Amino acid sequence: MTIGTVGAVKGLLPEEVKSVGGQVILSNTYHLHLRPGEDIVEKAGGLHKFMNWDGPILTDSGGFQVFSLSGIRKLTEEGVEFQSHLNGEKIFLTPEKAIEIQMKLGSDIMMVLDECPAANKDRKYVEKSLKLTTRWAKRCKEYAETQLAQRQNQPNGKTSPTAKPAQQLFGIVQGGMHSDLRKESAKELIEIGFDGYAIGGLSVGEPNEVMYEMLSEVVPELPIDKPRYLMGVGTPEDILEAVERGVDMFDCVMPTRNARHGHLFTSKGIVRIKKEEFKEDLSSLDDECDCYTCKNFTKAYLRHLHIANELLGLRLNTLHNVAFYQKLMKDIRKSIENDKFDEFKKEFLNKTLS
Fold this sequence. Notes:
- This protein has two domains: 2-150 and 165-252, TIM Barrel (Alpha-Beta Barrel), CATH 3.20.20; 263-353, no CATH class.
- It is 47% helix and 13% strand.
- The chain has 15 helices and 13 strands.
- It has helices at 14-19, 29-34, 38-43, 47-51, 63-68, 95-105, 123-153, 179-192, 208-218, 236-244, 254-260, 292-296, 299-307, 311-337, 341-353, and strands spanning 2-3, 25-28, 57-60, 73-75, 80-83, 90-93, 109-111, 168-173, 196-199, 228-230, 249-250, 263-266, 269-272.
- Strand 7 (109-111), helix 7 (123-153) and strand 8 form a beta-alpha-beta unit.
């Protein structure tokens, strides 16, 4: 899923995202709540109309901000108190409020409110955090069911412009770096019952081997007939390892963020376009990619744009990286359909890591 934090994929038009195979855009509940506010988005007809994207949208709940803004937040049973990173204003987010915001945004997939413990938190803290996250997940489910039932029962013409009876709600497995706690989390979420199950709290500073171990332990515990979503991951190598362990969905800022820094993913490995070696390189960025960037421009030109700090360079780099990731996922799906995933993974890693 391509990241569109504030209702926009940085540097790209919605049709450009779609042109390279983008299917789902992920937006951020916390940031959209702060600016422009969910009420404005609702008046506009929902986030799809507001950002002119007719594909699915997943909105996170703001739970990751509980982790990333750890220095300016306060957790209670009722919810979490934030200090806005924009103006310092205090904001109190409850599980019910997180769902209310997402309903007004009109996303297709909503996420429960959770706490994401840092990788170095001790077991006692993680146990306490997990219990709180599970209670919050149950409150999110109950609130969502109540609100959706009320919307469905209203007379025609009385519903919210963003009302979607089919809005999906995903639970989030937590448990830190403790496999038994993650299994416990998965079991409790399954008992509550969700439309899909995300795995949170990984790629937060732990070694890759630990992340893979946690995935190996927890993914088999999740229903095979529900989407399994690894949040915030990651590199192509991490995606392949996670798919091998049964994960279906991913999101990460790497394609767009790295593009802005001239860090480009290709079928032969990473290209850091600012390097001197590309100054006179008139070959395309990736001869296995058919995106607009690769079909029309050379490495030398992309380097020139990057060195000149030209906005076009950011756009072309971003378009390519998003296209690369979408092609990777398409190729993974094809290899699974043809029962050749192991071969594909080995060949891909040999080419990109050699």
